[in-house]
Amino acid sequence: MLYDNHGRPLEYVRVAVTDRCNLRCFYCMPEEGINYVPRQALLSYEELERVVRVLASLGVRKVRLTGGEPFVRRGLLPFIERLSSIAGIDNIGLTTNGVLTAPHVPELVRLGVRSVNLSLDTLDRERFLRITRRDELPRVLETFQALLAAGIRVKINAVVMDGQNIEDLVPLAELTRELPVEVRFIEEMPFNGGSHATPALLPWNHVRIREHLAAHFGQLLPQNSAPGATATSYLVPGHAGRLGIIAAYSRTFCGTCNRIRLTAEGGLRTCLYDQGVLDVRALLRGGASDAELRAALANAFRYRAANGFEAEQHRPVHQISFESMSTIGG
């Protein structure tokens, strides 16, 4: 198994297959979108596959495909099939906004995709339109139902935004009463592509989110989380599913973080809050051998920040809010 310089195992990579998205969520980017990188600057599927093979040889076992929105890039399903054949990779997941996903659910089952994280910040169509700037809630809910019917494990990711969707926290959490899903509430992060200023202190942090849910549901029973999990999980007595809270801005889970990120243009991030620690694309297109690529990756892991605050301190001043999660990889 691969370990970083703080003794944390690295066994999970989030791979962004594109920076493009078919929604315009205001907490991720401005209404006009972001400056997408040229298509030739994106890693090809062949390049992405090669990096995952090398990472698997180092001990990575889990891959989650992200974007942007993964399904806006053609050829995604054949790429997943190739990933599933890589020795050592035993868990492939997907994060999607659900707009284009429903027709592909049977193929995801065939390919062995174990879990899907579905981005869904509200169940109200008007608020969905206001938040995402697109009227696509019916198609997202169609995907949700298709995933449940197919038996794929579903986690709903809802970003908690002051003045935008607070009235949606309880309705979203109510989904766990009858359905075997985990609804996860995420602190809003500063990566909004310059859409708006992020306050130094969030009005809705993980403590307030928990208190808000407890005020409605009563006792929330803490559950054991998987190693490296970012969410603190809770069970509401009598509910079929679980609730989760992700302190993405407060960064309370850094001490057990087991994940790394590969951006769509080949930047390695060993922390969500760093600015990229290795240009993998340059190595690939510069003719590096697998052994050289493996050595460069392993070396980068020896200098990983202890937590998100340390990683942020090493970034250029004021840069963070001008990045978009679509560019970083969800």
TrEMBL record:
GTP binds at residues 14, 64, 95, 155, 259-261. This is GTP 3',8-cyclase. It catalyses: GTP + AH2 + S-adenosyl-L-methionine = (8S)-3',8-cyclo-7,8-dihydroguanosine 5'-triphosphate + 5'-deoxyadenosine + L-methionine + A + H(+). The lineage of its organism: Bacteria, Pseudomonadati, Bacteroidota, Cytophagia, Cytophagales. Belongs to the radical SAM superfamily. MoaA family. One of its GO terms (molecular function) is cyclic pyranopterin monophosphate synthase activity. Catalyzes the cyclization of GTP to (8S)-3',8-cyclo-7,8-dihydroguanosine 5'-triphosphate. Keywords: 4Fe-4S, GTP-binding, Iron, Iron-sulfur, Lyase, Metal-binding, Molybdenum cofactor biosynthesis, Nucleotide-binding, S-adenosyl-L-methionine. S-adenosyl-L-methionine binds at residues 27, 68, 119, 189. GO terms for biological process: Mo-molybdopterin cofactor biosynthetic process. Residues 5-224 form the Radical SAM core domain. [4Fe-4S] cluster 2 binds at residues 254, 257, 271. It comes from Hymenobacter oligotrophus.
